[in-house]
Amino acid sequence: MGDLVPPLFKKGLIMRQYKSDRLWFWLFLAPALFAFILVVIIPFIMGIYYSLTDWQAVAGIKPNFVGLENYKTMFTDIAFQYSLIRTFLFTFLSVMSINFMALLFAFLVTREVKGKNFFRAGFFIPNLIGGLVLGYIWQFIFKSVVPSIGTLLHIPALEDLLLLADPTLALFGLIFAFTWQYAGYIMMIYIAALLNVPQELLEAAEIDGANFWQKFRSITLPMIAQAFTITSFLTLVNSFKQFDIIIALTKGGPSTIYNGEIVNATELLAVHIYNVAFKYNDMAQGQARAIIFFLMLSVISIAQVYFSKKREVEM
Amino acid sequence: MKKLVSLIMILALIFAFVGCSKDDAKESQEVVIYQNKVEIHDQLSAFAELYTKETGIKVTVKTSGGDSPYAENLKAEFQSDRQPDIFVIEGMGGYNTWSTKLEPFADQEWMDLTALEFVVDGKTYGFPVAVEAWGMAYNKEILDKAGVDPATLTSQDAYRAAFEKIDSMKEELGLTSVVAMAAGPDMTWVTGLHNFNGYLSAGLPYGDTTVLDKLNNGEADLQRLTEYADWVELLFQYADEAVLLTGNYDAQVGQFGTQKAAFIHQGNWIDPWLADNGVDFEMGFAPHASVYGKHNAIFIGAPSYYVLNNESENLDAAKDFLNFMATNEAGHNYMVNEAKMVPAFTNVTIKPDAPLSANVTEWVAKPNGSYTWLQNDMPDGFGMGTLGPIYESFAKGDIDKAEFINQLKTKIEAIK
User: Tell me, which fold does domain B27-131+302-347 have in CATH?
Assistant: First the structure.
């Protein structure tokens, strides 16, 4: 074979082939890379820079460099601290409630029940309604329907209930509305996972005398661990970033008192950042908070995926 | 033959040229007005046509607004080769942006007919486009039944007596509460801006900004705050709890419109809502007794002003046009009947057909019948974002009156 193609020539050919492959590689990548750099990387770096200035977002006014001033103000701001606590509370509770409801629904609609496709569609449909619309729907329910039911059943407590005026109840109302919207979507992921659990394992366990809980704990749960990774990631990130339902349902209110300051009970981080930037017209401060928001969300979600991955079982 | 053709061609060219230059000359006579109310574009254009017929001066109306941001489009308009002669600003914010482009008015007839022009350093820069106002709007029928004369509602004591009386007759009048008041998260503009404006300007002469200036320097007037807190307490005490704490605009206006409240803390902008819902009882405005003492004025202001471009070549024509609008019957007809606005001028005799707007014209005509709008001259977000939740906590009873005053004071002092 060596006498057919001289070795040197062969090597040069490969080099040239390699070089032209690389050229094509970058050529095909260029449009996507260009767009990504233009709309993600550059604004991100500019954002970091602006968070260190007193930027006003008015063309013609040159921002002055102020160092870490914005970050200092942020962490001494009681409204921000409170918003942070509430965001973590909201995220924790809604991840729990969405995943619990979604798994429950998924179990129910993978049994042999009549009209299970109808139920699947029914549970999924709230997800197709936009957050603003369903926020207003639930506002109507909490403000008008709940008291009317109280009047109808002669329950004074329900009749006079101002759910959205109570800091704790308003947060639960928000979690309720969000669960109603999102559980159906997460349910779909669980259904796919549940249908992939090998029936022969379950049957074998049954023959060995395992009851429902034993089967669920030792077979079903480990087998759907992959779905858990995805669903907990999705619910975590979406709860943390929740914005539209809050705007429509509570507008950040009701007011409550924290450390002697009057703060807004459901002004979670995304809404808080929006208010700082646009209501108070403090763009640089809002930008600094957005960067902290990004860092926290990244760390939490990466940690979550890392630990969930460990639990997954490979067949 | 060929010569004839070229002669005709040349003649045609010359005529065309003359025609053109004549057009050009005419165009420089034209007044261009660039405004921001989409809903009155057609009416204003029709009025401009009428003006052209009467005086021979062409007025072109250009409009942007609604979905397209006026402020940004205006900047683009100034970059073009034909700048507007008249454009619109919305108070101090607009003045700060455009101050180098503005030409003050002087010796105009309309200036004696209004107290609501836009003035900076003694120079009049803005022609008030229209007027909006709020006070304590009342339902005349209910007050008559309860035997309360709205003309007597001029002080906190008078209000307290009237509220007590009406409250005791709630059942027979079919009311859920005396006042339709809202302080929830959706309504911080009513509390943090409109109601708080009482602290800033009630009882002071029109245009007096001493309390506002103090506030912007981080100084609170404790005496005024104490008096003002009594007024807030009074309103909250006689409001329906559900509307007060969680109600939105519809809930608040709805309570008044369905005759379930005798008073409402809103302005004449609720007229279309009431008309759409077939409300036809008699109503009017009584003064806010925001601080102690007698009050005989409601909060009247112009949300936007026509201003002159100082680079305009048609300044006189532009001034004449605005003066015509304010002083001529046709201008009044346009403002009141066509554009459905409340004119800021005391010489207007045509009454709007909407009840609250009609009442506003009476207050405009009254000597010293207006208190100043200062709520938009506080720092960004201060009224709705910072003060709004304090009102809500007070309404819920989370804080008492002393703490309410203390919170307002602390927030004002934090402005510095």
Answer: D-Maltodextrin-Binding Protein; domain 2 (3.40.190)
